[in-house]
Specification:
Blueprint lengths: L1 E5 L5 E6 L5 E5 L5 H9 L1 H4 L6 E5 L5 E6 L5 E4 L6 H16 L8
Antiparallel strand pairs: 1-2, 2-3, 3-6, 4-5, 5-6
Length: 107
């Protein structure tokens, strides 16, 4: 499921959740709902490309990934993972989740 959020500064973001309810991906803030909606519509074809995932390691040794748009700008970040294998599994889960979303689950 993709959940849309509006913060106190009137910025929008989205969260992609697994069927279990766990968060797979949190977007950056978007200034307008129109920009957010355009990005959400591009998620399905975007996650099929391997080049849009940037794998990173924090200074504390945690692993996470960033999702980039076609222009190469970061649009969302994963939660931290304790292992590289966990991060790779997170990418696979995100791809599968977005690919299997019912149209009613996409705002």
């Amino acid at each position: 499921m993709i959940r849309i959020q509006k913060d106190k500064d009137n910025q929008y973001s989205f969260v992609v959740t697994a069927k279990s309810g766990n968060s797979l991906l949190q977007s950056i803030p978007f200034a307008s709902r129109k920009d957010l909606d355009a990005t959400v519509k591009e998620l399905r074809p975007l996650v099929k490309r391997t080049s849009v995932f940037e794998r990173q390691t924090s200074h504390s040794g945690k692993f996470h990934f960033a999702l980039k748009n076609k222009e190469g700008s970061v649009i969302a970040m994963s939660k931290p993972y304790s292992s590289e294998a966990g991060m790779e599994n997170g990418i696979t889960n995100l791809r599968n989740r977005i690919s299997s979303l019912d149209p009613s689950e996409i705002p």
